[in-house]
């Protein structure tokens, strides 16, 4: 979710260095996936790389780097066996990159933050010296994913090989190169209805890697405070919001009016490129809507793509908060299934080039 960006910008601007911890490679079972981040200051932390002894060790290493970074260099790389080294039952191996960030890093952090705010992706590359033979400055390069002509050679190699570039630590020209992709959340939810359930859903989605367009013509229904990933559209023409939504959006329809629900359903079926479409209601409501929508020309195979009742099966509670959790879980399920299908279609490989030559000792990169 890149929650480390805002505190990093604030602290560096006021002259306080911080350490960015990145889980750059995983082997076997680990608490988090490669690409997880944690930001560490001398008295606080943001985000998580999985908790437990791994995170405790990372915090200790980061705060040591905060104290002695000027003497040892701005980066260090650690390969930690979770079982032998840390006593965690996961049993895998986690490779961590720790980067001491200061005012010299502001340009690329500010550019990254601005790009993500504008829903644009960026690829970051840092070349690490001291890890293998040779010496290369550990500067950060930042570029757009489609700018392959001007991008760093290691990133171009990874993209050409068809590798998922979300986070890769690879050998290139005798050096270790971290290449990772930062992009706005791929899950975009268009939520119609600002009643009790809609408000509960927004509170849950505020904690997840997604963006939300929240629609209701009743402006007074929206709370005074909105999460950073939520944008309100108080409109008298909600069907137009359906047409304007980005491709592959996920739609949730839970308004105060059945007639409006039906019009929204019709509009969603007309665009037919949604990633998920959920309609709040009972099985009886579904049958009535299916008959009415079929009479208006919606094909049977399209009607099968509508989820109603909504929420993961097996959760029977009807309190708004319970519905919200069940719906959020279903949205995540549908999103993961779509990402998996895309990966299979592109034949993406999960890794490139082995990481070799490390034991449990740390390696400094300057």
Automatic annotation (TrEMBL):
Taxonomic source organism: Allopusillimonas soli
InterPro entries: MoCofactor_Util/Proc (IPR052698), Xanthine_DH_XdhC (IPR014308), XdhC_CoxI (IPR003777), XdhC_Rossmann_dom (IPR027051)
Domain XdhC Rossmann, first and last residues per copy: 189-331
Official protein name in the record: Xanthine dehydrogenase accessory protein XdhC
PANTHER family assigned: ALDEHYDE OXIDOREDUCTASE MOLYBDENUM COFACTOR ASSEMBLY PROTEIN (PTHR30388), XANTHINE DEHYDROGENASE SUBUNIT A-RELATED (PTHR30388:SF6)
Transmembrane stretches, start-end: none
Domain XdhC- CoxI: 12-69
Positions in coiled-coil regions: none
């Amino acid at each position: 979710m890149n929650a480390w960006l805002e505190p990093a910008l604030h602290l560096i601007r006021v002259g306080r260095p911080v350490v960015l911890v990145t889980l750059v490679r995983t082997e076997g079972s680990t608490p988090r996936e490669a690409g997880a981040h944690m930001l560490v200051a001398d008295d606080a932390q943001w985000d998580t790389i999985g908790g437990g002894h791994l995170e405790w060790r990372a915090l200790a290493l980061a705060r040591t780097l905060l104290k002695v970074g000027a003497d040892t260099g701005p980066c260090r790389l650690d390969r930690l066996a979770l079982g032998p080294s840390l006593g965690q039952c996961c049993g895998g191996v986690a490779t961590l990159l720790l980067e001491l960030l200061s005012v010299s890093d502001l340009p690329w952090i500010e550019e990254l933050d601005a790009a993500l705010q504008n829903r644009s992706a960026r690829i970051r590359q840092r070349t690490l010296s001291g890890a293998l033979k040779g010496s290369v400055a550990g500067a950060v390069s930042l570029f757009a994913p489609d700018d392959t002509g001007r991008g760093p050679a290691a990133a171009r190699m990874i993209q050409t090989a068809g590798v998922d570039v979300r986070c890769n630590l690879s050998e290139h020209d005798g050096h270790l190169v971290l290449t990772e992709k930062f992009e706005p959340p791929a899950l975009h939810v268009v939520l119609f209805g600002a009643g009790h359930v809609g408000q509960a859903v927004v509170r849950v989605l505020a904690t997840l890697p997604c963006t939300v367009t929240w629609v209701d013509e009743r402006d007074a229904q929206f709370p005074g405070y909105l999460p950073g990933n939520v944008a309100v559209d108080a409109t008298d023409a909600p069907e137009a919001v359906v047409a304007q939504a980005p491709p592959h959006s996920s739609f949730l329809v839970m308004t105060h009016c059945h007639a409006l629900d039906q019009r929204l359903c019709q509009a969603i079926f007309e665009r037919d490129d949604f990633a998920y479409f959920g309609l709040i209601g009972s099985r009886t409501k579904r049958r009535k809507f299916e008959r009415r929508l079929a009479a208006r020309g919606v094909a049977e195979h399209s009607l099968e793509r509508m989820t109603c009742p909504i929420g993961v099966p097996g959760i029977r509670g009807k309190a708004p908060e319970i519905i919200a959790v069940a719906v959020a879980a279903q949205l995540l399920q549908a999103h993961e299934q779509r990402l998996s299908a895309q990966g299979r279609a592109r034949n993406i490989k999960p890794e490139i080039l082995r990481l070799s030559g490390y034991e449990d000792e740390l390696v400094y990169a300057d």
